[in-house]
Write a structure and sequence with these properties.
Layout: H1 20-33, H2 38-59, H3 67-83, H4 94-97, H5 101-105, H6 109-115, H7 122-130, E1 134-136, E2 139-140, H8 150-153, E3 156-158, H9 176-181
Antiparallel strand pairs: 1-2, 1-3
Helix pairs in contact: 2-3, 6-7
């Protein structure tokens, strides 16, 4: 049968929990991206640190690894990050070290749903995702923190079964072009 897998945390808490500058910065980011819990933010920070640590270890050549194997690992890491549009086609491994937290947060499903105009606010985008109103590649996703690949970005849509599917729904965000063409009546 086998033993039950031990569940481990996917993040680590900050070393200094009461630094006011870090708390204010985290609160600002959480508010901007509609993240309700700091643990979700810390998971993203851990993922970013993981990418950077991989890049750092690949820059320095180990004695046990061959140059060919090291180059192959660099290419795999760069291809993975290119899928998320975090690095460009002609970037090197040094571009990974310059990634920021906002770069990763902009690739989240919640952020892309908001930027596409399906929701009025980030919190509404999160609610639409968790309440099963959003489809990605004709699959319902309920994780707002899902990192969207470039090829999946055009396939994000509102489920036809959802009440938000109608463009006349009062809670659905209106297109910005409609707002601009609206004229104010003068007397």
């Amino acid at each position: 049968m086998g033993d039950i897998k031990k569940i481990r945390k996917k993040y680590s808490k900050p070393e200094h929990p009461w630094r006011i500058s870090r708390i204010e910065e985290e609160n600002k980011i959480c508010k901007e991206f509609g993240i309700p819990k700091k643990t979700e933010l810390w998971k993203t920070v851990s993922k970013l640190e993981s990418y950077k640590n991989q890049a750092k270890s690949l820059v320095t050549v180990d004695r046990g690894q061959t140059e060919e194997k090291n180059q192959k690992q660099k290419n795999l890491l760069l291809q993975k990050l290119k899928k998320y549009n975090l690095v460009k086609d002609d970037d090197t491994i040094d571009a990974i070290l310059s990634l920021t937290l906002t770069d990763l947060l902009n690739r989240r499903l919640q952020t892309i749903v908001f930027k596409k105009g399906y929701a009025k606010t980030m919190k509404q985008a999160r609610q639409m995702i968790t309440h099963r109103h959003i489809l990605v590649n004709n699959r319902i996703l309920t994780s707002p923190s899902y990192l969207v690949k470039v090829e999946e970005e055009n396939s994000i849509e509102i489920s036809p079964k959802s009440p938000f599917y109608s463009t006349d729904h009062p809670e659905r965000a209106k297109e910005s072009s409609k707002r601009k063409t609206k004229k104010v009546k003068t007397r």
